Amino acid sequence: xxxxxxxxxxxxxxxxxxxxxxxxxxxxxxxxxxxxxxxxxxxxxxxxxxxxxxxxxxxxxxxxxxxxxxxxxxxxxxxxxxxxxxxxxx
Length: 90
Known about the structure:
Elements: H1 4-13, E1 30-33, E2 37-40, H2 41-60, H3 64-73, H4 75-88
Antiparallel strand pairs: 1-2
Helix pairs in contact: 2-3, 2-4
């Protein structure tokens, strides 16, 4: 039987390590984005960050019309977010 003390010591010593090269992680998963194509999850998250940064730039400069257009008239951001949420299981 494993004692609680030894189990806690093992848990404290455990560390999250970076994946070795060539090992697949959840960010390496290939995702089909409807109407856009296939990309890795890491590329998808990078694209989402770029779109959000673009919207933030418009809002900082007071161009609310362009920010609205970037958020609602372009369906790409919505597709990217939906694909990432589906992959997360949310």
